[in-house]
Design brief:
- This protein is an alpha+beta fold.
- The protein folds into two domains: 202 residues, Transposase IS200-like (Alpha-Beta Plaits, 2-Layer Sandwich), CATH 3.30.70.1290; 88 residues, DnaA protein, C-terminal DNA-binding domain (Chromosomal Replication Initiator Protein Dnaa, Chain: A), CATH 1.10.1750.10.
- The protein is built from 15 helices and five strands.
- The two termini are 21 Å apart.
């Protein structure tokens, strides 16, 4: 199935989120977490990426990565594939353990690096696993407190606070505490919805860097997606929005829901148009996971990608 291309270029900075398939746990014990971090360390050395922060939860993980040369797709492919092989061998299972395509949000490093480090390190506190970030073992927060040079490149962030290490660590702790006291940063959640975190100037800068690859940072509107689905399925936009329940109409709605999600949009934003509960929209989107529905989604995405690059 055709998918919107990832935005990749030397020096790109990403917030990566990987979730377990069907929300299952991807780490069942501490050895699993150590094995995952061993792979991160191995490929960090081999592929030369910068790791600013990480946190491993039971059913998902966060990484904050800069890619000086090797693209994020190659980095995550190596890490996820070899960890999946380890997991399946250890637990005598087969198949995918991660939920489809991992999420990689391209971010403006200068503007959001510190906020993202704080967001990631506060994750166990938000999940109510611990009361303070330093109580959680499986994040890079402790590396920041100790100032040690290991898996994460903590010094790159700490020197933004002060050139003197002890003062930098103190200011970092205060910065983290301010985030906990102030609640969640809504600007970071906005980035998760849009797949890119930065202002218009940042988007224009990125456009210039990737223009040779024919990649567009634009996303199609709901009306554009509806039109493409109608063209591929032969079902009118009016019928998709209606209460009709024919097999072809239901399939077209499923293709619409899946195509809409493929561009990083939320199903709830379809509700005003399709007038269905979220649970119904979620079931509809799964219709096109295989067979004719999967083929049609591929055609829709191909049409939309071509039009955005035109």
């Amino acid at each position: 199935m055709a998918r919107p291309p990832r935005i990749e270029f030397p020096g790109a900075f990403y917030h990566v989120i990987v979730r377990g398939n069907q929300r299952q746990n991807i780490f069942l014990d501490e050895q699993d977490k150590r094995e995952f971090l061993n792979r991160v360390q191995r490929y960090k050395k081999e592929l030369g990426f910068v790791l600013y922060a990480y946190v491993l939860m039971s059913n998902h993980l966060h990484l904050l990565i800069e890619t000086p040369e090797v693209p994020i797709s190659r980095i995550m492919q190596r890490i996820n594939l070899t960890y999946t092989q380890f997991f399946n061998k250890k637990y005598s299972t087969v198949g995918h353990i991660f939920q489809g395509r991992y999420k990689s949000f391209l971010c403006d490093r200068d503007e959001y690096l510190l906020s993202l480090v704080r967001y990631i390190h506060a994750n166990p506190v938000r999940a109510k696993l611990v009361e303070q970030p330093h109580e959680y073992k499986w994040s890079s927060h402790r590396d920041y407190l100790s100032g040690c040079k290991g898996l994460v490149d903590a010094h790159r962030v700490l020197q933004m606070f002060s050139k003197e290490l002890s003062q930098a660590r103190r200011q970092y702790r205060e910065f983290l505490k301010e985030g906990q006291d102030g609640g969640k940063d809504e600007t970071l959640y906005k980035g998760m919805k849009q797949q890119i975190l930065g202002d218009d100037a940042f988007v224009e800068e990125v456009e210039k860097k990737v223009i040779r690859g024919g990649i567009s940072l634009k996303r199609p509107s709901l009306q554009e997606v509806l039109k493409a689905v109608s063209e591929v399925s032969g079902i009118s936009e009016e019928d998709m929005e209606s209460r009709k329940r024919g097999k072809e109409v239901i399939l077209a709605r499923g293709v619409l829901a899946r195509s809409w999600r493929e561009f990083g949009n939320r199903l709830r934003d379809l509700q005003p148009k399709i007038k269905r509960d979220l649970s119904v929209l979620s079931r509809l989107s799964r219709i096109s996971d295989q067979g004719e529905g999967k083929r049609m989604v591929g055609e829709v995405l191909k049409k939309l990608n071509a039009r955005m690059q035109a």
